[in-house]
Design a protein that fits this description.
This protein is mainly β. Among the domains are: 108 residues, Immunoglobulin-like (Sandwich); 107 residues, Immunoglobulins (Immunoglobulin-like), CATH 2.60.40.10; 122 residues, Sandwich (Immunoglobulin-like), CATH 2.60.40.10. 9% of the residues lie in helices and 40% in strands. The chain has five helices and 31 strands. The strands form nine sheets. Strands 11, 12, 14, 15 and 16 form a five-stranded antiparallel sheet that branches. Strands 19, 20, 22, 23 and 24 form a five-stranded antiparallel sheet that branches. A hairpin with a 3-residue loop joins β25 and β26. The termini are far apart. GO terms for molecular function: peptidase inhibitor activity.
Length: 529
């Protein structure tokens, strides 16, 4: 027998979040009405009412506990909302008056009720404050299911595994009648959680937090999907009924899934937004879509090449650039008109100390027909999503000849410093003056290290196009590896560096900052490409 929910106007009963009174009425139904077969795992799995929406806001063990109770009520969502919003007292007893040393005790009020503590922890007083603590005496609560033990993992095809664990039925010689014992024993749910780490070697210090994987009413689970290739996994299980739980089992032995394959080649390679710059050089945007990959893609390798015809033989001029993993496009600059180019994009993943590279996606481009790829009605600008954070705040004219530009960018929490690199790409002046500029200042790049999130770049020429790149230099760290008793730098621990890029034009100044006018600041427009 299960229960249905009747919503009435002013009758007595529990109230939901909308203020409606909810009465529970018994309805006979078959047991299969509250259980269903999970097609992803192949195991009988308890039908949690959209449990993912509850897990984000509530403790996973509390969600399963409420679901065990609400499996006897229909509709279950009404019951779940009421159960999760209620304050409740967890089984077990708080430790004694002085369970902690003064160094361990937190002199704060961290909770007001047991419902604010995770898993089986209770809100208890210590000799300095109130904190969540693991209770005592759970083994004496006979109406709680026993902790599962002896988790066994059987490898099947590829990344498929089967989990089994031992369960101990509660004794019938308990303080409640046999009918109540049967109700609690049959409504036991098993909360299965997992944690994982990517890499060829098991590193416990880098395991992810525990997260719920599945809930089942059986002492086994067949996992057919959801496990990632090239990862180490651990599982733990908690038996939960509507009274509560005694806690989680010991973690299973770690096991590794199949070796990862190389990424697939980037998809949907396309060209657009071709336009001719004022220096008669062509620019074009190349786009692609991220390909499927067993392990995360770290960056892309972009190649473009063209044939150089010589008097004796021909040669191939090849350029290449690394593109951050969060970009799916790149603006190729300084292309010549009347040439045929060959573009290629390759995805690169890192697994341990080994690179996994994809096949190269390719496209041929004839720069004579660049207008086919021009989009005069739409200019998306730079395709680097970080560019919005890197900008020129202001320009300052220096004595009529040079310009100072102040760059600002958002802070990177992982960065200890920033490497700022800038380079002059071209200038928009008459040929005579252009020759004098080229003789005075070269087009080589310059760089500077800074710990600030701004930098003043000085001695820039007017009416010239500059490109700037700001690369984050991450904080030093070590990754412990219990391998041959050595402490080594591990590629599994690599943290991708953030790269910001921008391009701007220093237009001519109408006013200047002289030596005795240090605060005369002139603002100019910044064109980003």
């Amino acid at each position: 027998m299960v229960w249905a929910v009747e919503v009435v106007g002013e009758a007595s009963g529990s109230k939901d979040q909308t203020g409606r009174t909810v009465n529970l009425i018994p309805v006979r139904t078959h047991r299969l009405d509250i259980h269903q077969l999970d097609h992803t795992s192949g195991s009988p799995v308890h039908c949690l009412a959209n449990w993912t929406e509850y897990i984000e806001e509530h403790d996973s063990m509390r969600v399963v506990q409420c679901n065990s109770k609400c499996s006897r009520y229909l509709p279950s969502k009404e019951c779940m909302d009421i159960c999760l919003a209620a304050n409740y007292t967890k089984p077990g007893n708080c430790p004694g008056e002085n369970p902690m040393s003064p160094f361990e005790a937190a002199c704060v009020t961290a909770c007001n009720s047991d419902s604010q503590c995770s898993d089986v922890a209770k809100c208890c007083s210590n000799n300095c404050g109130i904190t969540c603590m693991r209770p005592l005496g759970l083994e004496k609560w006979e109406d709680l299911p026993h902790v599962p033990d002896k988790i066994e993992i059987r490898r099947e095809k590829s990344n498929m595994v089967a989990l089994n664990w031992n369960i101990r039925k509660n004794s019938k010689h308990q303080k409640f009648v046999k009918e109540d014992w049967t109700k609690y024993d049959q409504n036991v749910m098993y909360l299965v959680e997992e944690r994982h780490v990517l890499g060829p070697r098991y590193l416990e210090s880098r395991l992810s937090p525990w997260r719920i994987h599945q809930v089942t009413n059986q002492n086994y689970l067949s996992i057919r999907v959801g496990l990632k290739t090239g990862h180490w996994y651990q599982f733990r299980v908690a038996a939960v009924n509507e009274i509560g739980s005694r806690g989680y089992s010991l973690p299973s032995s770690p096991f590794k899934t199949a070796e990862p394959r190389n990424p697939r080649e980037p998809r949907n390679l396309s060209l657009n937004e071709a336009h001719l710059h004022t220096d008669d050089k062509l620019r074009i945007l190349i786009h692609w879509r991220q390909p499927p990959s067993d392990v995360p893609i770290m960056f892309y390798k972009l190649f473009w090449s063209r044939i150089i015809h010589g008097p004796m033989n021909d040669s191939i001029l090849v350029y290449h650039r690394s593109v951050p993993k969060d970009k799916s496009c790149y603006e190729i600059k300084n292309l010549d008109i009347g040439c045929q180019y060959f573009f290629q994009v390759q995805a690169v993943a890192i697994y341990g100390g080994r690179r996994l590279v994809s096949r190269k996606a390719s496209k041929v481009f004839n720069s004579t027909d660049y207008m086919k790829y021009a989009d005069v009605n739409k200019r998306s600008g730079s395709c680097d999503k970080h560019d919005a954070g890197l900008r020129v705040r202001r320009f300052i004219c220096e004595c009529g000849e040079t310009i100072e530009a102040r760059l600002v960018w958002p802070v990177d929490p992982q960065a200890a410093s920033y490497n700022v690199t800038w380079q002059k790409n071209s200038c928009h002046r008459n040929p005579k003056e252009m020759k004098n500029i080229q003789n005075s200042i070269s087009f080589s790049s310059m760089s500077q290290l800074t710990q600030s999130t701004r930098l003043d770049i000085k001695r820039l020429r007017r009416d010239c196009t500059y490109s700037v790149n700001v690369r984050s230099i991450n904080r030093e760290f070590e990754c412990e590896r219990n391998y041959e008793n050595e402490l080594r730098q591990n590629n599994d621990c690599l943290i991708s560096e953030r790269n910001l890029g921008i391009e701007f034009v220093t237009y001519g100044c109408k006013h200047y900052r002289l030596r005795d006018e240090e605060h005369a600041i002139i603002n100019f427009d910044v064109h980003r490409y």
